[in-house]
């Protein structure tokens, strides 16, 4: 079955190519069912399902670790309200934790850099009821650290259980209730819940050498729930993916979603590699970096991935313990959409009259870092864009601050401050971006270049 949103119907050839990719993945992955959906600018543009049993954009599947993205958002909402700082230690807010976790920071838990064990002590938490581990102290070994905190990435499911407990402690309610009130209800995610509700897919294990099935347990994981308990639908996850772009500021601020999507350490991943931000994974795919999360629980695999360049997202859900590579399928669906029906650029429009500030216009044009030319553009809402005009260089977007400076938003200069240093008569003299000086002419005799300018100025090569 296939469907598209009214008014946003894809070309039949595009819909067929997408369906073919999904059908191939379901057949070759030997998945009992597979459902996929695509959205662009928050609007559903395509969905399809293949297989047996309930399946489709409104059918519930278990989403596993995609749950972590929602828990991370709840933590960051607390931060945005001033209830905590990402540098706070866990023990500051949750003193009843397992020994060895008190000094881990909230940021380390969000980014999986706290060094905590990947899993709980046996039996495996995903296949056993949460009653085996009724308390937080039960989810970690007496010595829970596998690596020195802050030194390296090491994925930790118990770490997100601790974050869920942190949310519950500061809100005074179970994390599931906080989730419903703060995220699910405002976004209209009515089919997302800790337990399955009809219609939902049944989780299966598929025999590796015969076309037969075995049902998987549908466990309530108790205190480990924030690591992967939730069930959801492709339609609901499209709504959540849209919120993760920063397009629903009343739920999650755009600057907060941008923070979630930045690699917590190192650079953006190359093709075939993964990195991790604050609750979100980053995947290199076909020269682009997709942002989202994969998920798995016994009987289910899930993926939610966003393509910022195309302002699109993909959801892929299946009810098999292993087999289909859902992240690859999602990446392929996004690639096909971008290739076959690329997003139209936004129409150019002039700035509103109130933003055509002569003082800002005076900043625009060519500036030089040393002898390298850069262009400075004025954008909507007093934002600036600085980019090299030739060769290689460090481009960045800059957000205006209340004190008359600008804050760099991306690239090498992320987080640095741009200051406009003026001449005695008030004209822009030079720019200072985190100690990088940009002048109106290359190495002018009076330019405030660090280290000074040779007094003889420019010259030909001596004979």
UniProtKB/TrEMBL annotation:
SUPFAM superfamilies in the record: beta-lactamase/transpeptidase-like
Transmembrane annotation, as ranges: none
One Pfam family hit: Beta-lactamase
Origin: domain of life: Bacteria
Keyword Transferase belongs to the record: no
UniProt biased composition (Low complexity): 444-455
Keywords carried by this UniProt record: Hydrolase
Region entry Disordered, spans: 442-463
Molecular functions per Gene Ontology: hydrolase activity
Entry keyword annotation includes Ion transport: no
Domain DUF7586: 357-440
Segments forming domain Beta-lactamase-related: 24-338
Record PANTHER family: D-ALANYL-D-ALANINE CARBOXYPEPTIDASE, D-ALANYL-D-ALANINE-CARBOXYPEPTIDASE/ENDOPEPTIDASE AMPH
Identification of the protein by name: Serine hydrolase
Taxonomic source organism: Streptomyces cacaoi
């Amino acid at each position: 079955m296939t469907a598209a949103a009214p008014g946003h119907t894809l070309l039949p050839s595009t819909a067929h190519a997408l369906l073919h990719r999904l059908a191939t993945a379901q057949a070759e992955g030997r998945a009992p069912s597979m459902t996929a959906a695509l959205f662009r600018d928050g609007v559903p543009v395509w969905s399809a399902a293949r297989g047996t049993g309930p399946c489709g954009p409104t059918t519930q599947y278990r989403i596993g670790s995609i749950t972590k993205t929602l828990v991370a958002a709840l933590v960051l909402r607390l931060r945005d309200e001033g209830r905590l700082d990402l540098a706070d230690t866990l023990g500051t807010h949750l003193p009843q934790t397992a020994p060895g976790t008190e000094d881990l920071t909230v940021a380390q838990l969000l980014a999986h850099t706290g060094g905590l064990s990947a899993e709980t002590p046996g039996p495996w938490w995903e296949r056993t009821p949460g009653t085996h581990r009724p308390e937080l102290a039960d989810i970690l070994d007496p010595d829970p650290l596998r690596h020195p905190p802050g030194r390296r990435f090491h994925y930790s499911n118990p770490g997100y259980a601790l974050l869920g407990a942190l949310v519950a402690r500061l809100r005074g309610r179970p994390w599931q209730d906080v989730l419903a009130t703060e995220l699910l209800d405002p976004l209209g995610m009515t089919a997302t819940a800790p337990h399955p509700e009809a219609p939902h897919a049944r989780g299966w294990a598929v025999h590796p050498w015969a076309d037969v099935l075995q049902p998987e347990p549908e466990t309530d994981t108790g205190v480990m729930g924030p690591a992967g308990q939730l069930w959801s639908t492709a339609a609901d996850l499209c709504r959540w993916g849209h919120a993760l772009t920063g397009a629903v500021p009343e739920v999650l601020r755009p600057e907060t979603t941008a923070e979630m999507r930045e690699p917590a350490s190192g650079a953006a991943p190359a093709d075939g590699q993964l990195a991790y931000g604050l609750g979100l994974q980053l995947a290199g795919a076909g020269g682009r970096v997709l942002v989202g999360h994969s998920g798995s629980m016994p009987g289910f695999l899930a993926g939610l991935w966003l393509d910022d360049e195309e302002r699109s997202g993909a959801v892929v859900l299946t009810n098999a313990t292993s087999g289909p590579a859902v992240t690859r399928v999602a990446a392929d669906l996004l690639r096909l959409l971008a290739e076959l029906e690329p997003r139209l650029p936004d129409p150019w429009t002039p700035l509103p009259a109130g933003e055509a500030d002569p003082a800002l216009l005076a900043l625009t044009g060519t500036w030089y870092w040393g002898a390298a030319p850069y262009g400075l553009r004025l954008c909507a809402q007093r934002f600036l864009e600085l980019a090299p005009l030739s060769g290689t260089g460090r481009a960045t977007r800059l957000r205006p601050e209340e004190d008359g400076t600008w804050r760099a938003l991306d690239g090498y200069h992320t987080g640095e401050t741009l200051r406009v240093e003026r001449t005695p008569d008030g004209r822009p003299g030079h720019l200072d971006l985190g100690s990088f000086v940009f002048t109106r002419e290359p190495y002018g005799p009076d330019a405030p270049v660090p280290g000074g300018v040779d007094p003889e100025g420019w010259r030909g090569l001596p004979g």
